[in-house]
Amino acid sequence: MRSLFEISKSGLRSAERSLSVTSNNIVNADTKGYSRQRIDKTPNGMKMTGYNTGLGVNISNVTRLRNEMNDVMLNEKRQNMSFMQSKARVFEQLEASMASDSGSDLDLSISNLLDTFSELSTDPQDISVRNSLISDARQLTTKFKDVSRNIDRTSDLILESSNSTINAINGLLGEIHSLNQTIAQADAAGAPDNTSLDLRVRKLEELSELTDYEISANDSNAVELRIGGVKVLDAEKADHLKAEINDVDKTYQIRLESGKTVEPQGGQLGAELEMYQTEIPALKDRLDELASTIVTEFNAIHSGGYGLNDSISRNFFNPTNTTADTISLNQVLVDDPTNIAASDTAGEAGNGETALQIAELRSQQLIGGRKLIDYSVDLITSAGNSLSSLNSQIEARDSEIQMLTTQQERESGVNIDEELSLMIQYQNAYQGAAKVMSAAQNMYDTLIGILR
To answer: In whole angstroms, what is the distance from residue 110 CA to residue 116 CA?
Structure first.
């Protein structure tokens, strides 16, 4: 008789707990990061003389339906996606800073200056053309400086953003460490904390968008994280990242509080580091090379020519340590445009050979086998080309993420129809267990009546 009561009690308890879990699934159907849960049940056995019989059902665990390998794959894709998206945002800023709606101002400024030299070669004594030449040259130097400043401004914005990214990473590492402790304590007590496990998954997803990391789990179900091969989180503590900038060469490093250097390769922080340390300096170098080449080539010809007053050995641009930031006109020419050298022979004011030689620089391959205009066009469209390439990769990667996300939702997401069906099943089970208990009570009452 006792066994019937035990069996019915376990059945009622199992059905009630199953209904509770199913109800929790239903109300969390649209909760981001929630993993569907199921009751794990095992039969209770009982040894009796001559044969075995059951003693109801035992609830062994409440299991999260989660494919952790899928999570790892998704986070790797997210790291790469965020890396590309962050780079794309910077290239978009660079593209806007280097070209106007009507085309590239830099290549147009170079072309206009060469055109004016060509015009001067046909009428070297025309003061209005000489004044136009000074104006075009000033416009070119201004454009170089504007582009250079815009690139520097973008670089500064990256630094600001990376500092915010590092703060966000540190915050997440702290939260994950706290969840590690909660999860480990629950595991040690034999009652896994599914809510904390789901929350940790969400925090790891957020972290994957900020940086790449390697993940492993210890025996207590706490995760350990490494960034660039350097441990930043374990069961004992969460380390903190900090940024360091060399005031001399402006190099940027990320270190732990312990002093170890960390080199993220993915996520938003990895992209910001790559853009700041590699892509932007390379772009700036190309811009400086263009400015330096123009100064060198123009001066080489101009310094051998003659102005209207037979002046010679005057540079067109100031030649010292030329960069896009420092390129400037020879002030002597600005003060008196008659000093612009158009002639290659003293005393021949109508000779425009020197001006023509400068104009013909347009067709010469001066930088890496490229013409000045072609090189400048490649330079100012490089950011846009990189952006276009990244957008194609982002689109492809987004499809991969959507596929994995769909797979994860199929395994971990809540299907309302399925849960409602299970709810009816558990309600019936509860009613059945209640009838068993009622039958056992009737049998007990009958037995008591007989004994009386």
So the answer is: 10
Q: How far apart are CA 211 and CA 269, in angstroms?
A: 6
Q: How far apart are CA 287 and CA 33, in angstroms?
A: 47
Grade residue 144 by pLDDT with cuts at 50, 70 and 90. Answer: very high
The DSSP code for 131 is H
Confidence of residue 22 (pLDDT cuts 50, 70, 90): very high
* Nearest residue to 430 via CA among 1, 22, 3: 22
pLDDT band at 18 (very low <50, low <70, confident <90, very high): very high
Separation between Cα atoms, residue 154 and residue 147, nearest integer Å: 11
Q: Are 437 and 12 in contact (CB under 8 A)?
A: yes
Nearest CA to 136 out of 303, 329, 358 is that of 329
Kindly give, in sequence order, each residue whose CB lies less than 8 Å from that of residue 154, ignoring residues fewer than 6 positions away: 90, 93, 94, 97, 280
pLDDT tens digit string along 102-121? 445 899 999 999 999 999 99
Helix (H) or strand (E) holding 224: strand 223-227
User: What's 9's DSSP letter?
Assistant: H
Angle between helices 280-302 and 68-98 (to 10 degrees): 20
Which of 10-14, 42-46, 392-396, 422-426 is predicted least confidently? Answer: 42-46
Give the pLDDT confidence of 328-338 residue by residue, as tens digits. Answer: 999 999 999 99
Q: Is residue 201 exposed (0-12), middle (13-18) or buried (19+ Cβ within 10 Å)?
A: buried
